[in-house]
Amino acid sequence: MAEPSATKPERPDEESADDAVIVTRALTKRYRGGQLAVDGLDLTVPAGSVFGFLGPNGSGKTTTIRMLMGLIEPTSGSARVLGLPMPRASRTVLPRVGALIEGPALYGFLSGRDNLLRYDAADPTADPRTRRERVAAALDRVGLAAAGGKKAKAYSLGMKQRLGLAAALLQPRRLLVLDEPTNGLDPQGMREIRSLVRELASDGTTVFLSSHLLDEIEQVCTHAAVMARGRLITQGAVADLAAGARGRLVVTTPDAGDAARVLKEQGAADVVVDGDRVTAEPPERDLAEVNAALVAARVRVRGFVVERASLEDAFVALTGEGFDVAG
Ligand SMILES: Nc1ncnc2c1ncn2[C@@H]1O[C@H](COP(=O)(O)OP(=O)(O)OP(=O)(O)O)[C@@H](O)[C@H]1O
């Protein structure tokens, strides 16, 4: 439940939480049916980050976001957004947060511009005299200035998502929360939303976005948390998470069988041959020696590199399983 006061609790081990935009402690949600959707979540989202909330379908991402936005009550634990407890401080917090959850609610028979005018009019703090300028600026921001007069039902899914983002951007926001913003989009639509997210982040807005796509998180996010079955597996800077996993040695050669044998002799583990590519966990010894051993064994080496570890490697190393995106 929410903390009893709005002052920050004394937690000397978590000083980084001080400038965090979202902090949860032991946040737990058990649905009425008994389903434990989120289990003891400790999340820290630093200010200014693009924070990827990653996990396969059903891992508890949407449930967490709904608790953060005060839409549902946690069963136990606490969540603070912009330093204030949720859901208690919803009225203060939500106007400072732009959210795009489960797709924007749009009137298809209205133009994109008129949809935004309606959104703006529903905000009691928005000055009606400057409404048109705000809407024009928001349309411009998401690249819909030229399509603003078109009916929303004629928009592609990507355009609808961008219109939803424009609605979230009518007011200056400290935090944007986007639930699977690229879900269902074609590759072009995905690229557009991703570059928009990067742009917003470069202006200093903290962006919290959920995704079940590892490469999306790697492309867009500075930080990430990985969920599986309602529990947090890891969180931190994307570069650190990936660096935690060792890269793989990749040897390209027409003599793959011999190369695999030599690599094993040299102490490489998990040697895998795939056509003319032999990959392995690099041995502890100097890689120059390994390369020399290949050459001495008359293996014709076309390529010899250590590929940078990806977030996927880190995920596999942490869980011992592949990242299952099915479902
Ligand atoms: N209203 C609900 N009542 C009961 N169980 C629910 C409810 N909403 C979600 N769940 C269950 O809680 C678990 C977590 O679901 P949640 O939607 O939070 O996951 P998710 O990671 O967001 O997945 P997705 O991307 O598919 O939405 C799932 O097992 C789901 O079936």
Automatic annotation (TrEMBL):
<dbReference type="Pfam" id="PF00005">
    <property type="entry name" value="ABC_tran"/>
</dbReference>
<dbReference type="InterPro" id="IPR003593">
    <property type="entry name" value="AAA+_ATPase"/>
</dbReference>
<keyword id="KW-0547">Nucleotide-binding</keyword>
<keyword id="KW-0813">Transport</keyword>
<dbReference type="InterPro" id="IPR027417">
    <property type="entry name" value="P-loop_NTPase"/>
</dbReference>
<dbReference type="InterPro" id="IPR003439">
    <property type="entry name" value="ABC_transporter-like_ATP-bd"/>
</dbReference>
<feature type="domain" description="ABC transporter">
    <location>
        <begin position="22"/>
        <end position="254"/>
    </location>
</feature>
<dbReference type="GO" id="GO:0005524">
    <property type="term" value="F:ATP binding"/>
</dbReference>
<keyword id="KW-0067">ATP-binding</keyword>
<protein>
    <submittedName>
        <fullName>ABC transporter ATP-binding protein</fullName>
    </submittedName>
</protein>
<dbReference type="InterPro" id="IPR017871">
    <property type="entry name" value="ABC_transporter-like_CS"/>
</dbReference>
<dbReference type="GO" id="GO:0016887">
    <property type="term" value="F:ATP hydrolysis activity"/>
</dbReference>
<comment type="similarity">
    <text>Belongs to the ABC transporter superfamily.</text>
</comment>
